[in-house]
Amino acid sequence: MKKLSLIALCCSLLSVSAHSATDFDQVEISTNKVADNVYMLQGMGGNIGLLATDDGFVLVDDQFAPLADKIEAAMKDIKDVPIKYVVNTHYHGDHTGANAHFGKSAPIFAHHNVRKRVAANDKQSAADLPVVTYNDGVTIYIGDEQVSLSHLPKGHTDGDSVVYFKQANVLHMGDLFFQGRFPFIDLNGGGSVKGYLANIKSIINTYPDDVVIIPGHGELSNKQGVQQVIEMIEYSIASVDAALKSGKSKDEIIASGLGEKYKAWSWQFIDEERWLNTILAELAP
Q1: What gap in Å lies between CA 273 and CA 265, rounded to an integer?
Q2: Helix 272-283 to helix 223-245 angle, to the nearest 10 degrees?
């Protein structure tokens, strides 16, 4: 049986109906306590952030619609309270796929470009749309927690937000952080390699050194993990730029690769070739 492709997980512009129900039936939602009353839920798609207070839940991203009941069950195992707010870190369907389900119970917050891009996707409906949008950011106060949503421009997409739980000192970076792997930068969705780099550098300088970081994909991490991504992107840009200036063709640059240094960063969706092609598309369009 065909498994859900990682292209769908990242781009998520394909219809969920193209995949067999049993693909989702086999998915289990795992729960990781991050700090205080903040949790990370993993299943299929982007990592979910969850704040559980006596006043209700704040849900950050919601994966795919067929997983909504499983996500709800995992939430109820943590605390039996209503969902109060939903946040989308960006528009891709592996982060917004269950919006229609959770949006029935709580308002969905996102950057205004997220609403625009979800509205343009004929695989999603009006029920999937964020109903509270912002330009630079907004802060949600619930229980004893202060949840700050901050927009960072032109990085993974043109609608990225990071979500900071101040009291817990936990940051959800959405897909501005692929932990230990080459990132997907959606150039067609307003993303930029150099913008992505600038954004994650700003995160290093903005949040406390001991902040715990939930990546869009991968395991729990910290500033050291983000710094490794910064170094990889800087190395990749410098290598491609030097090769272009030396007169090498795009094909020659792809063939040469990045050497052994970042071989382990390739994964099913973004291997070294696709990562280099992303950089070339920006540096040598």
Answers
A1: 11
A2: 60
187 vs 13: CA distance, rounded Å: 14
By the 8 A CB rule, do 176 and 162 touch?
yes
Amino acid at 52: A
Q: What are the tens digits of pLDDT across the range 121-169?
A: 999 999 999 999 999 999 999 999 999 999 999 999 999 999 999 999 9
Q: Where do we find the tokens 């030097």?
A: 242
What is the C-alpha to C-alpha distance for residues 139 and 125, in angstroms, rounded to an integer?
A: 27
Strands 132-134 and 56-60: unpaired
With beta carbons less than 8 A apart as the criterion, state whether 91 and 159 touch: yes
For residue range 245-269, what is the model confidence (pLDDT) as tens digits? 999 999 999 999 999 999 999 998 9
Report CA 6 to chain centroid distance, whole Å: 13
Domain residue spans of the chain: 6-223
List helix spans (H) across 13-136.
21-25, 68-78, 93-96, 99-102, 112-119
Cα→Cα distances 141→38, 48, 108, 144, Å? 14, 19, 15, 8
Q: Of all helices (H) and strands (E), which one includes residue 31?
A: strand 30-35
Residues contacting 187, CB < 8 A, separation 6+: 278, 281, 282
Phi, psi (degrees; rounded to nearest 5) at 148: -105, 125
Q: pTM of the prediction?
A: 0.92
Placement of tokens 């369009």 in the chain:
285
Q: Report DSSP letters for 154-172, one per residue.
A: SSSSSS-EEEEETTTTEEE
For domain 6-223, the CATH architecture is 4-Layer Sandwich (3.60)
